[in-house]
Amino acid sequence: MAQIVIRHSLRDLVGAEQHFMAGLKFFDDPGRRGGPGAVSETAFVYGGLNAWMLGWADVARQRMMQMTEAVDERNSYNTACSVLFAAKFHLTIREYEQAQVLAAHALELMEKHQFAIMASAARRILGVAVAQELAGAVGDALESIEQALRVDSDGRSHRPETLRIRGELRLKQRQTELAEADFREAVALAQKTGAKAWELRATMSLAGMITKHGRREEARAMLAEIYGWFTEGFDTADLKDAKALLEELNA
Questions:
Q1: How many CB atoms lie within 10 A of CB 220?
Q2: For residue range 187-214, what is the model confidence (pLDDT) as tens digits?
Q3: In this structure, is the dihedral angle defined by the CA atoms of residues 152, 157, 163 and 166, taken in order, positive or negative?
Q4: Rounded CA separation 93/159 (Å)
Q5: N or C: which end of the chain has fewer CB within 10 A?
């Protein structure tokens, strides 16, 4: 489990997947479920997030179902953690309403049982989920992103998405060259680690931007290539948006 979490966090997605498969017989063993520290639940949620980043949305959802099945409801800590993990997963894949509901439930459980540290994590996820629909100050948001990138200087698994978000913020400030550089760096970094989900998002941002600057065919070609890689997950928000944009570019 530790290998999965660490390798996933440090962008070794392939290594995390290998360790998940190696440990699956233990994580999915009914006799080992519900143990201290929510080991099985943690392994399944990181295995799910890892699969999603690799572009396997259906596999990711299956692993989240296995996480739910692994919970021993007599263990209040593991139960609360499983709800929090589910909220994190839905937040990552842009299912904000579900993330909000689950985070609120997780916070309720954490406060009921006085799990203070985990309660703070639930509040953070809840806050992010609510904030997705709100428009904030671009300058302040950009400053926060810069801080995140400085902290993340060694390049963790979410760095491509962080770069993409900075690009979107720079685009709002009409810094088009800097925005394009961020999008391209995000794409390259995602390609380097095999993070197809992040690659798709960054490619959509890049394609949308260059289309507005008269480079429609370039945008269509790059988006068609990454979209054509996927074989599952077409009900997710990212792939729906990618399909809509691709149809617009093909029109």
A1: 17
A2: 999 999 999 999 999 999 999 999 999 9
A3: negative
A4: 16
A5: C
